[in-house]
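Notebook B, p. 112. Complex prediction, attempt 2.
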Amino acid sequence: MAAHGAAAAVHDEQHHSSTGVDNTKMAMWAFLGSECLFFGSLISTYLLYRNRVLDGPRPHEIYDIPYTSVSSFVLLMSSLTMVLALAAIQRRDMRGCRIWLLATAMLGMIFIGGQIYEFTTFVEEGLKLSTSTFGSSFFVMTGFHGAHVTVGIFMLLALFGMSMFGRLDDADGPRKVELIGLYWHFVDIVWIVIFTVVYLVPTN
Amino acid sequence: MTHANPLEPEEPGHHPGPSTYVKVAVILAIVTAIEVALSYIPGASPALIVTGLLVMALAKFVLVALYFMHLRFDNPLFRRLFVTGVILALIVFAVYLTTLFARGGAAPLVTGS
Amino acid sequence: MASAAVPRRGMFARPTAKTGVWGWVTTVDHKKIGIMYGVTAFVFFILGGLEALAIRTQLAAPNQETLSADVYNQFFTMHGLTMIFLVVMPMGTALMNYFIPLMIGARDVAFPRLNALSYWVFLFGGLFLYSSFFLGGAPDGGWFGYAPLSTELPGPGMTFYAVGLQILGVASIAGAVNFIVTIINMRAPGMTFMRLPVFIWMTLVTSFLLLFALPVIAVALFQLMFDRVYEANFFNPAAGGDPLLWQHLFWLFGHPEVYIMILPAMGIVSDILPTFARKPIFGYAAIVFAGIAIGFMGWGVWAHHMFTSGLGPVANSAFALSTMFIAVPTGIKIFNWLGTLWGGDIRFTTPLLFAVGFVAMFVIGGLSGVTHSIVPHDAQQHDTYYVVAHFHYVLFGGAIFGIFAGLYYWWPKVFGRLLSEGLGKLHFWLMIIGFNLAFGPMHIYGLQGMPRRIYTYPDGMGWNFWNLVSTIGAFAIALSVLVFLGNVIVSRRRGEIAGADPWDGRTLEWSIPSPPPEYNFAEIPIVKRRDDWWYTKYTETPEGVPTPVHTGGVDVDDEDEDPGRHIHLPDPSYFPIVAAAGLPVTGYGVIYENPVLIAAGLVVTLLGLFGWVLEPSAEEGH
């Protein structure tokens, strides 16, 4: 049921490809490569400052490892639902794709809810952006990660909406889901690093 | 010059299905559980804990990249783009952190009470 | 070319104008975008130049009060920010934008609307930065913004710095992604990597440098912003904040940044010298690999900007060695440029003069740079005018001369008329003499101890005479720029009509009309070798002398009156400018600590992006 217009659009996007690879996919991987430097800068700043606490709580006085483990698990599972959404649309199971997309978005929202709760608890317990270098670097690092997750949730809901209006039904649909999926998995990978390096690695 | 067809995988070879993805997810969950457990072991040397944690985090990173992000089955160009970013980040940040932690003769960093 | 029914998506119909103001505002054509980048960057060049003239007027003699210390700080900061972020980088982008598709045999870049977004974000970012002059004071903490000075300077200036550069960074990183995908994925059939013009290779390396370096300064700028506006402690000494954190993050970006500025110019020169020597570039592979090597090694030298910051002898020695080594690939390029000219049939046109000027001036700047790599020397030279001499030789004598070479070389292709050779040569000689008068003496009074960034100096230091010479040189440069402007105006209507190939060029852009049609190539060329265009025109005698092929070249005056009528191009769009417009609104929200403005800007950008994603790149029906 791919309309002529849709085929022309696909033809446009993939008209010329010296490597056989899609332009937007290459662009997303290039962008994710640069994001490694972005999060690397944030995480390395945190590593510099986590033990410089002249005021306020120290990291392991305030971290709730069991709590964060649960939210980490939630985000990890959202990567599974994301890739299941892609598998579904690749076999033209549009309903399945919608379900898994929604599941991914909801798991993401649970993660963000968990982050918000964690942040407000920390503030109540005396750790704010302005408390110490640890506070500043912790909140900015995890805050930017959370902002990335939030952007991802918006994109997932947008995909869900597009699917409801039949705009993922053409031959180009899987590419769009794959693209958002790459971004989502990357955001999960960053959390894998943050969870280990920030929460689990012991501090002095 | 070839055209990429989004309906067909770039390599007609092995293409994981949902069952593979679920298996990977189970492994990820188990490794996470081990990581958390490891961080609680009393009396274990910090060096051992940190090494173990980093190894496991790396394993999870690689699994998500290779399977969920499909890097294992895709055009090597993507792997190269991404790995370049990862390695560059690791090197430059390790170097600058080293210069900041290894300052000889400077006033010691405050380590709190 | 519009279809009978223009699609209506969202509130407004898809724009179709290809002319007039609306045509420029909604364009996604890389050529128009390139022209807009060039014109905007040139206006900023004038502004940055006026700032320089003010600085030089203030420093022409000791103890002057033409500019107060406070105003002086704003002028030297904005001069640096302008020349780096609003002139050299966007001028390079202008030429890259216009010529990448033409040189690789493509019809446009990979993401035309993203390309437009980059331009509008650049324009709005530049205007945002300059609005600071009228809104409480321009940035005054130096272009390098060292913390904790930059975190604690009163007034909005350094917040404009943090936010303005952030906005500009978005434009550059979008452009980098665009060019990387274009060059890797949109080459004409037969255009293998080793057949690409050197300019394209240098653009590819530059784009990777941008891709990986910009995120680091983005983090530093966010940290600076959080410290200034939201009381964070990243650089607060009382909380243990570390000034070296800023320096590391800044220079991790800042050093690749200087290669970002010079590599495109090196690429331009590598394509100009062969054209006017009628010889292929000497050692193509070596030049390409040297460029790639500079890209990689550029990541290993950043702390040479921090030799006097107390890193210690081990770190200093390591970075001194890496800095010395990076001179090697640069040297390879220089020898190859000389080798290209050697034995060539040289035509001394204005582009060639600027290209040769580039090589000479860049060598001088490179030599002073090598002296910085020796740590004890640097301890003497750091923060003196010797450094100012060094970077102006490589960035003005280098990048700007290279850019002017490119402008004179490619002007006929873009506008269909040649610039006057007479005025061009006058421009060149005035500029190179003025430039050396302005910056040569800085080596001297720098070594005599005159520090950087001082708004005045006392009498009796022995600096008076050469400072005056520098000021005279600066005004000579300004005069030469007026000559260039005069050339542009005069040549608009009286310039010689160029035709497709006025220089007897070697690369693909000379095979299409001047100016090129919207679709660039009526038929995508099939490339058989490097410098393919040259070899369709010439074959070589056994002695290596080019002789014309009797059926050579392509008949550009095609009998087909509309060869492009079958060609399907992306349609104009207003979403890029809409998405771009939200960014400065959010920026002002941060400056004025107004959450409503912050949110409003984000909403505008979001709506722009949303509309963009739902709109196909080209409409059906035409």
